[in-house]
């Protein structure tokens, strides 16, 4: 059965959301462009919002599992159970054109992700075949038959996992060229390319063992020196004896290892996606989780001795919890300013969530799979956590 995917990215005045349609049309990709009819200097209300949908016949031969934008939002990569990756480029007319398509793995390709363009045009993919692969785009030289044409080559295959590799993410660029994978066997691996000019060489820097099967990972993008490198790991493990399907790991400068800093014990159901919000100078962290509903957590670091080898402790608050999808939620994605969150679920809709000045979150838009907006739906703009009673009821205990 197909699941809905959504991704959200801000490109100057534009924000784009893409998803994979369900069931019969699971081989199509839709892009949603959010813009406004008023200048950016003015506030934009619901009446001035406009969504433009474009349908792309991706021509994958099987289910599309993931869609990923590059940093600038003008390139897109898709991956599928047909074991292939396709790269799409956006033209000046807004149309997406497939510029590369190739077989990548010997099993279903679960995820694909772009490196920061500072490191070149680099992709990473992971698969059911227990591997992760790094790809680089090169342009043919003058003596090549394909001179002037670009093509993708395999730089390295990471084969440390003994089970399906379920997610792959590049670390924030300020950490250098680093790549993280997680596997169904509960191991998170962090690799580093010591020479960014030689992507065939990657060294395994860290192995983090979890007691739960791992389904997704997210790096904290904060580049502040006040925040140690941090990674969130989600689990879809069916073992009910282990509570807390989200674990937070933090790098310790003293031990030079990653240690578990927090477990979100209130998340007891399978986690399909997880995403740290862009930090933008905040002293705390915001984390969105896709499970049987949409949840937004606030992680406030507590003071600790800088020389201590113990991980940071956090005050964990639940900012919002929405079950408006009435089904499993498969993707959550922030815009670049962390003011909007997009989620998609088995109800076939993408929903947009926004907080007001009091930090109360509500749904500001619903898009169907064909790109049309849902209007007049009961509860479409509800789900606001306004009362202190509701807020305190959601703030559950955490464990380690």
Question: Overview of this structure, please?
Answer:
Helix content is 2%, strand content 48%. It is an all-beta fold and 400 residues long. The strands form 7 sheets. It has a 4-stranded antiparallel beta sheet with strand order 1-2-3-4, with no helix packed on it. Strands 5-6-7-8 form a 4-stranded antiparallel beta sheet, with no helix packed on it. A hairpin with a 3-residue loop joins strand 26 (340-345) and strand 27. It starts with 6 loop residues before the first strand and ends in a 6-residue tail after the last helix. Mean pLDDT is 82; it is low at 9-25, 35-48 and 378-400.
- What's the arrangement of strands in the largest beta sheet? 1-2-3-4
Poorly predicted runs are: 9-25, 35-48, 378-400
Shape: globular
> Distance N terminus to C terminus?
35 Å
Element-by-element helix/strand order: EEEEEEEEEEEEEEEEEEEEEEEEEEEEH
Beta-strand percentage range: over 45%
* Approximate helicity band: under 10%
Q: Spell out the CATH superfamily.
A: YVTN repeat-like/Quinoprotein amine dehydrogenase
* Count of runs of 4 or more consecutive helical residues: 1
Count of distinct structural domains:
1
Mean pLDDT: 82
CATH architecture: 7 Propeller
Number of strands: 28
- In CATH's first tier, which class applies? Mainly Beta
Gyration radius (Cα, Å) is 21 Å
Structural class, by secondary structure, is mainly beta
Per CATH, what is the topology?
A: Methylamine Dehydrogenase, Chain H
The profile of the biggest β sheet is: 4 strands, antiparallel
């Amino acid at each position: 059965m197909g699941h809905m995917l959504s991704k959200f990215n801000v490109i100057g005045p534009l924000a784009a959301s893409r998803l994979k349609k369900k069931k019969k049309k699971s081989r199509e990709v839709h892009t949603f462009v959010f813009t406004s009819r008023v200048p950016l200097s003015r506030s934009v209300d619901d009446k001035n919002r406009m969504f433009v949908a474009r349908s792309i016949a991706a021509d994958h031969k099987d289910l599309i599992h993931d869609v990923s934008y590059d940093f600038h939002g003008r390139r897109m990569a898709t991956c599928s159970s047909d074991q292939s990756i396709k790269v799409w480029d956006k033209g000046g007319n807004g149309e997406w054109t497939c510029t590369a398509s190739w077989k990548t793995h010997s099993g279903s390709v679960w995820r694909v992700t772009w490196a920061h363009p500072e490191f070149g045009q680099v992709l990473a993919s992971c698969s059911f075949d227990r591997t992760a692969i790094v790809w680089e785009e090169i342009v043919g030289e003058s003596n090549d038959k394909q001179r002037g044409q670009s093509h993708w080559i395999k730089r390295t295959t990471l084969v440390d996992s003994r089970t399906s590799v379920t997610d792959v993410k590049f670390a924030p660029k300020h950490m250098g060229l680093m790549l993280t994978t997680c596997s169904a066997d509960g191991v998170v691996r962090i690799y580093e390319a010591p020479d960014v000019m030689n992507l065939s060489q990657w060294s395994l820097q860290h192995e983090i063992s979890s007691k739960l099967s791992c389904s997704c990972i997210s790096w904290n993008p904060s580049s502040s020196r006040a925040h140690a490198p941090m990674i969130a790991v989600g689990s879809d493990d069916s073992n009910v004896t282990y509570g807390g399907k989200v674990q937070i790991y933090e790098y310790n400068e003293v031990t030079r290892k990653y240690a578990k800093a927090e477990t979100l014990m209130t998340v007891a159901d399978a986690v399909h996606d997880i995403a740290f919000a862009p930090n933008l100078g905040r002293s705390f962290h915001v984390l969105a989780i896709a499970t049987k509903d949409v949840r937004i957590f606030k992680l406030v670091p507590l003071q600790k001795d800088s020389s201590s080898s113990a991980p940071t402790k956090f005050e964990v608050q639940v900012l919002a919890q929405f079950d408006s999808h009435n089904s499993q939620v498969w993707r959550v994605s922030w815009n670049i300013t962390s003011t909007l969150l997009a989620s998609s679920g088995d109800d076939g809709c993408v929903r947009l969530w926004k907080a007001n000045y009091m930090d109360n979150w509500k749904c500001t838009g619903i898009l169907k799979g064909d790109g049309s907006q849902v209007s007049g739906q009961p509860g479409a703009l509800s789900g606001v956590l306004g009362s202190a009673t509701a807020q305190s009821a959601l703030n559950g205990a955490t464990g380690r």
